[in-house]
Structures are given as structure tokens and as C-alpha cells.
Amino acid sequence: MESKADSIRRKAASRGAASRDRPKAAATKKARKPAVAKPAKAVDRKAATKTAKKATKAKPTDTVQTKRPIEMGPALRLVNVAIMRGERLIQQTINHEMRPGQMTLLTGPNGSGKSSLLRAISGRLSTVRGSISCTVPLLYVGHQDGVSGVLSGRQNLASWAGMNGVADAASRIENAIGQLNAAPFANLPTRVLSRGQRRRFALARLLLGPPGALWLLDEPSVGLDIDTMQVLDSMISSHLGSGGLVLAATHLPLAPYARPEVLALSETAEEGMNVVLASQAADKATKSAASAKDETAVR
Predict the structure, then answer these.
(1) Which of 29-38, 238-247, 264-273, 283-292 has the lowest mean pLDDT?
(2) What is the mean pLDDT of the chain?
(3) For residue 31, what are the CA distances in angstroms to 17, 27, 64, 209?
(4) What is this structure's pTM?
(5) Residues in CB range of 57: below 8 A, 6 or more apart
(6) Which of 39, 122, 145, 274 is the most buried (most CB within 10 A)?
(7) Which tens digit of pLDDT belongs to each residue from 85-98?
(8) Residue 6 and residue 22: Cα distance in Å, rounded?
């Protein structure tokens, strides 16, 4: 039989085990209780209204607006241009357009009107018919150098800069002289210089002009040595890169890296000569008839 002492020990042990199990049971009960969501705080209506207005005014960040490139119109346009030299029609229908950054080589045999076309575009020669429109400044370097023999190369450039209102002329003149390697003879009268040396000062005027101008060049490489021809090619490439234009009449390679277009003039324009002369004769006859009619009315 179980003694009284053993009975007391067994009961005490059972009570201790029960007391140890009570917290675990309570934790289990708490874990088994379903979680109750707390009520959300009331949102201020005024703050919500302001936020909505800001969201309406804000620009969407996920929309990317791509700008279309601006297409530049032609800076030079020739439409049905006819040119005469004396009483001879040398070209009767010339059509061509040029845009900023473009170069055109004017080719053709001797007497086809290359120089005459350049002079017509520059305003030095009248056309028989057609239209020439240019929206940019013009810089013309003709077959002749156009420098005064009694002045030095530096004085010629200073005079040209003064007549054309070139800003910061002194420093730009020195830069042009240095770029064309003309400093050793810049103070000598140009009448004692060689053709190639005088040509350098004629071309130096191009560096004094505005960046977006149309350069009209008539045989610009004549008389130049190889080194100066390379300098001229570099000048042309830089000018085209800044949005300028170049129209050059030449028999020699010029700025091949610029990939110029070619405007080839035909040798003769005999087919249209009689038409143009007849048109001029008709205009003269009309004016004479009108003048005679006015005189009769006065009498």
C-alpha cells in the first residue's frame, strides 16, 4: 500500500506539472483567437481634396514627348535662270536648291557660264529670266583676287573688315592670317607677292564673314600649293559644319570629304538663244509702240 508520505509527494508533483502547463495553454488560447482589425483613422477631407488637385495638375512622368527635327528650307533657290554674256545666251534653264550645311561643285567646260552664274547669284550680273533667291549672307571670291596692290595683305583685310562692319576685326584678321600661314609676308605690298600668296589673302576674307553665309568661290584653288589647298579643305569643312553653304566652280578636287553635290552646266544653250532674243525684241517693240502712242496722245 501507498504510504501517506508517498501520497503527499505524488499530489505535489501533479500540481507542479499542472501549474507549468497553464501558461502554454493560455498562450495557445491567445494564438487561436482570431485577429481583429483596428478601425482605420478618419482621413481629413480637405487634405484628400488638395492631394487630388495636385495629382490632376501634375504632368505624367511616363509620357515622353519626342521633338520632331526642324526641316530647313532651301537657303538658295535657282528657278529657270537664263544667263547671257553680251549677245550670246550661255545658259537658258538652271534650276538648283541648296540648304544649310550643303556644298555644290559647279562644273562644265570653258565658256559654259560657271563664273557668270556665280556673279549672277552675287548680284554682279543680271539674269535674262528666272529667279534667284537667297536667305543668307553672301561672300564672293572671284577668279581675280580683288586685293589692292599698293596695300599689304593685312591692310587689305582691315579695309575689307571696316567696309563690312566685322566685329572684333583685329583678332579675327590675325587668326585668319595665321590659319593660312600668311604671316611672313602679311606686311608686304601685295603687288610683290606671288599669285598663290595673294590668293591666300583673298580667301582669308571668308574667315571674317558670318558663320552661316553662302561662299561663292570661283576657282579657289588656283595658285595654291598642296599645304594651302589642305587648309582650304579644312576651312570648307568647318564652315559646312557650322551651317554654312559653299558653291564653288572648279576644275580641281575640292573638299572631297564634304561629299559635295555636282551642278553640271552644258557647253552651249543654242536652242534657247533665238527664243530669248525674240522675247527681248518683242519687249523693245512693245515699249516703242507704247512710247509712240503716248507722243501721239500728247499732240
Answers:
(1) 29-38
(2) 79
(3) 22, 6, 53, 90
(4) 0.68
(5) none
(6) 145
(7) 888 898 889 999 99
(8) 25
Phi, psi of 146 (to 5 degrees): 70, 35
Look up cell 566685329; give the residue: 167
Nearest-angstrom CA–CA distance, 56 and 129: 62
Q: Could you tell me the strand order of the sheet in which 245-249 lies?
A: 138-141, 214-218, 245-249, 103-107, 261-264
DSSP labels for the chain?
A: ---HHHHHHHHHHHHHHHHHHHHHHHHHHHHHSPP-PPPPPPPPHHHHHHHHHHHHHSPPTTPPPPPPPPPPPPSEEEEEEEEEETTEEEEEEEEEEE-TT-EEEEE-STTSSHHHHHHHHTTSS--SEEEEEE-S-EEEE-SS----TTSBHHHHHHHHHHHTT-TTHHHHHHHHHHHTT-GGGTTSBGGGS-HHHHHHHHHHGGGGS-TTPEEEEESTTTT--HHHHHHHHHHHHHHHHTT-EEEEE-SS---GGG--EEEEPPS--HHHHHHHHHHHHHHHHHHHHHHHHHHHHH-
